[in-house]
């Protein structure tokens, strides 16, 4: 099964969180599981906040790219199109909110499960849950905005 990120064109695959071309990044992969999207990631020992627990910034980063990937996947699905077909669907993060419910154990695989709360042409809101060993440790909200064609050119 291919992940939504496997359909990103090479020139848009340098993101630290989800770019397959970024050898230093997380290279996350987002898949459908029924009506939810799922990303799984096993943290390294250096992803530490305090010994034994995962750094919150890593969790935020995973929620971020899981959210933008889920937004793209959900848009293709809503339009009845295969991922990667033209016109390409591209999202960036407009806002990112993370609520840390309890410490996230460092070692086991982290699972992030996303659901579409709102889907419009230019704006998709994804709610995510972060789970380790079946324990919900954080919640995320990503407002994903369709990437403008001139993204970054005006700055
Ligand atoms: C093929 C695969 C490729 C794959 C591409 C891979 C990319 C991976 C991305 C990884 C994630 C990142 O780190 S991305 C990098 C971090 N993010 C950024 O740098 C984004 C910087 N910000 C911007 O460029 C801009 O502010 C945008 C694009 C986000 C929005 O500008 P805009 O396009 O002019 O938006 P605008 O018309 O005003 O608003 C459209 C709708 O979005 C809402 N909206 C706009 N901004 C926000 C916001 N910050 N928070 C909440 N909501 C917002 C508006 O209320 C409105 O909702 P309504 O009234 O319609 O309801």
From TrEMBL:
Query: Where does this chain mainly localize?
Result: membrane
Q: How does it sit in the membrane?
A: Peripheral membrane protein
Name the residues that span the membrane. Answer: none
Catalytic activity line of the entry: hexadecanoyl-CoA + H2O = hexadecanoate + CoA + H(+); dodecanoyl-CoA + H2O = dodecanoate + CoA + H(+); tetradecanoyl-CoA + H2O = tetradecanoate + CoA + H(+); (9Z)-octadecenoyl-CoA + H2O = (9Z)-octadecenoate + CoA + H(+)
Where is it found, in Gene Ontology cellular component terms? cytoplasm; membrane
- What name appears for this protein in its UniProt entry? Acyl-coenzyme A thioesterase THEM4
Per UniProt, the enzyme's principal EC class comes to hydrolase
Please name the Pfam families in this protein's record. Answer: 4HBT
Q: Which InterPro entries match?
A: HotDog_dom_sf (IPR029069), THEM4/THEM5_acyl-CoA_thioest (IPR052365), Thioestr_dom (IPR006683)
GO molecular-function terms, A-Z = thiolester hydrolase activity
GO biological process terms on file:
fatty acid metabolic process
> Which family does the record assign?
Belongs to the THEM4/THEM5 thioesterase family.
Q: Supply the alphabetized keyword list.
A: Apoptosis, Cell membrane, Cell projection, Cytoplasm, Fatty acid metabolism, Hydrolase, Lipid metabolism, Membrane, Transit peptide
């Amino acid at each position: 099964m291919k992940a939504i990120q496997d359909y990103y064109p090479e020139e848009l695959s340098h993101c630290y969180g989800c770019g397959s071309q970024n050898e230093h990044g997380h290279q996350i992969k987002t898949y459908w599981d029924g009506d939810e999207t799922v990303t799984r990631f096993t943290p390294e020992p250096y992803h530490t906040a305090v010994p034994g627990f995962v750094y919150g910034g890593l969790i935020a980063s995973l929620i971020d790219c899981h959210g933008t990937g889920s937004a793209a996947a959900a848009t293709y699905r809503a339009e009845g199109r295969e991922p990667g077909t033209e016109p390409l669907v591209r999202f960036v993060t407009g806002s990112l909110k993370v609520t840390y419910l309890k410490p996230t154990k460092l070692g086991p695989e982290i699972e992030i499960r996303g659901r579409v709360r709102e889907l419009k042409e230019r704006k998709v809101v994804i709610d995510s849950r972060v789970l380790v060993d079946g324990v919900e440790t954080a919640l995320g909200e990503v407002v994903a905005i369709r990437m403008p064609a001139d993204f970054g050119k005006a700055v």
